[in-house]
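Incident log entry.

Two folding requests arrived from the same account within the same minute. Monitoring flagged them as a possible duplicate submission, but the sequences differ. Recording both here for audit purposes.

Request one:
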Amino acid sequence: MAQTRDQIGLPFMKMHGAGNDFVVIDSRNDGPDVSAALVAALADRHRGVGFDQLAVISGAMHLTFYNSDGSTSGACGNATRCIADREMRLRGVDALELTTDRGTLYAHMVDDMPWINMGAPQLDWQDIPLAEAMDTLELPIEGSPVATGMGNPHCTFFVDDAEAIPLAQFGPRYEHHPLYPERTNVQVAHVVGPDHLRMRVWERGAGITLASGSSSCATAVAAHRRGMTGRRVRIDLDGGVLHVDWRDDGVWMTGPTAHVFDGVLTADWLATI
């Protein structure tokens, strides 16, 4: 007799992209109901597994993302890239379609590196969304940040020195700014050289993370709109380097990926949730 997940537990994968780490649950065959309690328990780095985001695979490569605080996110570029990398290698293909709450995303393997098309950036205030009509290139906030949507909202500050910003205090102040009714990811960035940025990130629902794919895309778009860089940009983050290319068909992004380990959440542990 086949054992059920109630008896054997719940398999998962641990991955990261430039230090931005994820738990991935493949529910294409026998998917669990992902409750807020399960997300919170999994996110606990002491009593669970720990992650910046949880990604659940369902259907024909549909990805659903949860932040470590249990809230959902419409996009997660690094998790998408990690999952696409693994799936393309398993299938022996160099192109793949995935879907998210934002829509269909396309992955291509180029020189053994997975590139993800994160779609066209959202530049109008109502699409990001912001609370009222305004110029998204220069928000009426101290520091004149840029607002960008990449399936989730972003607020990018260009500063003299990203390292000098006390991000643990700075990030939450703007994550909950009244101009962002759905909260926002917050980036601080400065120009290192031609088409080269240094960026640090505070993610809504997760806090400080070592990297963020959608934040990197938003920062590259904002820098080009401001005339600071071209469309293809290197971004140095706390956890590594990502490359972003804003093309006519969308914002493409690549960088390192790692499938760290596979595990099983035990039935006994799941029963405590």
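Request two (distinct sequence, not a duplicate):
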Amino acid sequence: MFAYILRRILQSVLVLLAVGLVAFAMFRFVGDPIDSMLGQERTVEDIERLRERLGLNDPFPVQYFDFMARAVQGDFGISYRQARPVADIIAERLPATLELALISGVFAIALGIGLGIYTAINRRGVLANAIMSASLIGVSLPTFLIGILLIYVFGVQLRWLPTFGRGEVVDLGWWTTGLLTVSGLKSLILPAITLGLYQMTLIMRLVRSEMLEQLRADYVRFARARGLSERAIRLRHALKNTLVPVITVTGLQLGSIIAFAIITETVFQWPGVGLLFINAVQFVDIPVMAAYLMFISVMFVGINLVVDLLYVRVDPRLRAER
């Protein structure tokens, strides 16, 4: 087991190095940051002096290895726009994004698995069919359109919930949270639903299809012949075998929640790292863009590593192979 974990960690490190190379190379073609940092009165001497101070005159391999060496230590350089350490800027925005992703993930997993089990068990019921029909909305509509519709209905027409911002937050030292205030909780509802609706419907439909397949398996017929209750068959046997493919998709969806938060944060002006990335693109702030992509890569790699370990935990056959 230790060798398996070590091998997966080494693979993850190689992936992060490759992502860092792609990110650093790609962002060199989005524009020249000097244009946004110096005004119209700049001189050639000013341009060369700033390029030398930022290290932009160094060869590409030197810039890349210098970036990765500092990134390992948590140093992503200085923001071209704000002239502050990128790590400090991301640390200020990170609580908002992680809080939004956490609530959206809980919403997607809890409702997705619960509704998937219900629609599989009661597949001929009126309510189950209505839920499956409504789930097509979450699958087909783009995230930004769902957010705009929720803003129009609950923010503009009904005036129940705020339409932008994070609301009032509480400073806990190294963390800020809106979960401890009424305005913070209200501000979190619409973005969390917008971000988690697609993942929820996807998980629900996957759980339903896998559950129906397991309920038709031979071991379920054998369990019924032995006299086991339907509750035990569904929850202790069929659901457990359903979880293996569900874990894969759920893990990837949790990573995509953080990655796709950039759209939701833009629609609701949520002060997270996604909105920070959009502003960085507009001002060609390469250190912020590269740090954001590295952050998303670390989240995806970490979630995939956890998913692989859960495989071994859930499926006894994999433990036997290990």
